[in-house]
Each structure stands twice: as C-alpha cells, then as structure tokens.
Amino acid sequence: MEEVVQNPDNNDRKFALPVDSEHKATEFRLLSVSTPHMRAFHLSWISFFSCFFSTFAAPPLIPIIRDNLNLTATDIGNAGIASVSGAVFARVAMGTACDLFGPRLASSGLILLTAPAVFLSAIANSPAAFLMVRFFTGFSLATFVSTQFWMSSMFSPTVVGTANGLSAGWGNLGGGVTQLVMPLVYSLIHNNIGSTEFTAWRIAFFFPALFQALSAYAVFFWGQDMPDGNYNTLEKSGEKHKDSFSQVLYHAVTNYRGWILAVAYGYCFGIELTVDNIIAQYFFDRFDVDLNTAGIIAASFGLVNMFSRPIGGLFSDFAAKRYGMRGRLWMLWVVQMGGGLLCLLLGKIGSLGLSVAVMVLFSVFVQAAEGLTFGVVPFVSRRSLGVISGMTGGGGNVGAVLTQVIFFRGSRYSTEEGISLMGVMIMCCSVVIMLIYFPQWGGFFYGPKKGVTEEDYYLSEWSAAEKEQGFHKMSLKFSENSRRQRGRKGAAVPVQSDPPTIV
Fold first, then answer.
1. Cα 500 from chain centroid?
2. What tens digit of pLDDT does each residue of 229-265 get?
3. Which of 216, 255, 409, 464 could form a disulfide with 77 if both were Cys (CB 3.0 to 4.6 A apart)?
4. Domains within the chain, CATH numbers bracketed
5. Angstrom distance (rounded) from CA 473 to CA 495
C-alpha cells in the first residue's frame, strides 16, 4: 500500500509520494502507478513509444517497400530525412504549447493529429507519397518535448534526471521494438493470411497507427498537467496565471544555454535518429544478412534505450548530488565524446560480429548522453521550460537532418564512411558543452560567482510589475528546491518551505 504524503500548503492536498514545496515528487517509484506523478510517467513514455514506433515502422521493411514503389537510394535517403525534419519546428511549437496549455492537451492533440499519416502509409503508391507520409508521421516525435516537460513538472530536481531519462529512454525504445515487430507482423500477414508481399507491408501499418491513436486518448482522459491539477483548472482558480507567449519565448531564445544544449542534443539524439533510419539497410547490404536478421541487429541499437538513456539520467542526478551542476556538465561531455569515438570505430570494422558489438556499445554511450542532456535542461529556465525543452529537442532533429543530408544522401560517401565521419562530427560538437555556465553554480571550468543565488537567476525572468502580482511564486519555490545543484555543500542548505508530513 502506498504511503500518503500531505503538504500543509495548497488546501492540504494529499499525494501518494513524498513531495516538495511545489508538490513535485521527491522520490521515483518505478512500479507505482499512483496519481498524478507516476501515472503521468507511464502515460508519457507509452505515448512517446507509440510515436517512435510509428515513425520508424518503415525502415525495417525498406527492402520490400523499395521494390514495390521503385525507390532509388536517393528516394530512401530523402524519406529518412523527411521523417525527422518535420519535428524540427514541431518540437519548438510543442514546447510553447506546453508552456501555455499544458503537456496533456499538447501531447494528446499532436499524437491524434499525426495518426492519420500512419494509416495513409498503407496506400502510398509512389516515392513522393511515401516521402510525404513519413514526413507527417515524423511530426509525432515532437511529443518528446511534452514528455520531458511533463516529467519536469511532476518530479523534484533531486530525481528529475532519472524521470526524464526513463520516460524518454523507454519512449525511444519504440525505435528498436519496431525493428523487431514490423518484420514479424509483415511475415504473419504474408505467410499466414496469404497476402502478397506488396499487400502485406501495407496492412502491417495498421498496427502502429491504431496503437498511436489509442495512446492519444489515454493521455487525454487519464493524464494531469501538474501535481495540483490541469492548467485550465489552476488558471481559473488563480493558483497559476496564464503566461504571455512573447515573454515565454523571449526568455527562452535569449538564454544561450538552451542553444548550446540544442547543438549537443543534435549529436546524440540526432545520431540515434540517423542510425534508426540507416542501420537495418546497412547490415542487410554490407554483410548480406536476411531481412529478419538485419531487423534483429538494428533493433538491438534501439532496445538499449531500455537502460542506457535512463542510466544517463541516473548518472546526472548522482553527479549532481556530489558535484552539483558542474558534475552534470562534466559527465555529459565525457559520455558524448566516448560515443563519438565508438561511432568512428564502427565505420572502420568489416567483421559482422565485431560490428554488432561496437554498435551496441556505441548505442549505450549515445543514448546515455541524451539522458545526461536532459538532466541539465530543466535548470536552464523555470518560466520558459517548455520552449527550452522544445529548442533542445528540435536540435536533435536538426542534427539528424544535417547528418543524413551530408553523409547518407546520394552516393558521395559509402555508408561505412558516413558512419565514421559522423563520429568525428559528434566529437567536434561536444566541445560546445564546455561553454555552459550558471552564475549560481558554476560551469565546466569555473565555480559560481560569489553572492549569486538561485533566486537571482530564476527571478530575473520576471519584471517588477509581475512580481508585485505574485506571478513569480512558482519560480521562487523552484529556486529553493534547486539549491542542491550546488553539490555536497548545497545538500546542507535548508529549503525555506514547510516539510511534508506522513499521514
């Protein structure tokens, strides 16, 4: 039986998990489905999983689809680029929607709007049609932003890296599971039902389409935006004010840390998206394995998300407990550089067994770097959290588009050459992480500025007039709860709010 925790603020609301002054959970209990914290976690990763599954349902069936639609190598490359390019702007828009309307409406709305594109994949009859359905299906990847925003709204800074890492990692897992499931679904339809191969792949797309649509309804009917309720309810009661779009956007785009994290994320998550698009065909063509074997190998890259991205989030929280924000940044840089080195090595190996082993290890580093990146994102801005999350997430898609355009479109480079050059790109782009500096906590090389507090940093996003109206109160509570980002010294700093009591 779950313990019930009561906080004396906000009408004595009760929660199944211990909470801080913002009613964010200070513990993460994976096996719990308690409302609202853990239910939000499970809804977020399952819905994001469904979108990842749909977006990458086509690559494992490319050897069949290309014969049916007479796709050239350029057509396949363009379709892969299209699948991740649509989410570039969709992710920024999603961040804004989360800030203004809440993650529940933003997420369920986008998932439902993009589900028809998955259904329409079944009737694509030309290279152009195939490109378009992959383009519009890829918009659903913007639900990653609502996933991270939702977790940052539900979990305290002490465990937010873990929550973000698990929700996104298990969502990304859809890119690996689809590599296994879609060939099996295709085989069942083709062999057991008796459909021709060119009909079987089309029928197979109804599986991810239905899954995605159902997940949208689950988020809408069972989800909750914040620990204390949904945005519209809190705004009507006066507990939350409806923020200004211009101010939310301004404080995001003028914070350089968000742009740096977007570049870093472009060369961890962007690399994952790229590999999801090319890896099955790479092993099929280079090592002459059959379709199911290529799918199993490709799936192993995505399936590592079950633990690798969550490990990144756990490592980020662990590093912060000892070394504060500087620990988060150092850990991110080390892991991302390691991923670049392994990617460089992967393109040089000509042995099937060794290539698979290096690919799996490379996957661990790349996906852990994703979790580490979003261990930092929630602290960049309190007021513009959604837009910052969207900018960072969009950076992942930009990185995927650029990488595929430069290295995997056309015949300028062989696939193995492109993979090695991609590793060099990862290492080069990792350097920008060193430029991130928080005046209240320090950065990669330097400690904090003397006398600067968390309140100085987060309350600077609010004008004097807004503070007079009390709009800054949520940022003030977040400042108090973020003091442990100072590291071991910060752990001893008392939080100026009433502690929760066990009932």
1. 31
2. 998 888 887 777 788 888 989 999 999 999 999 999 9
3. 409
4. 35-227+243-443 (1.20.1250.20)
5. 15
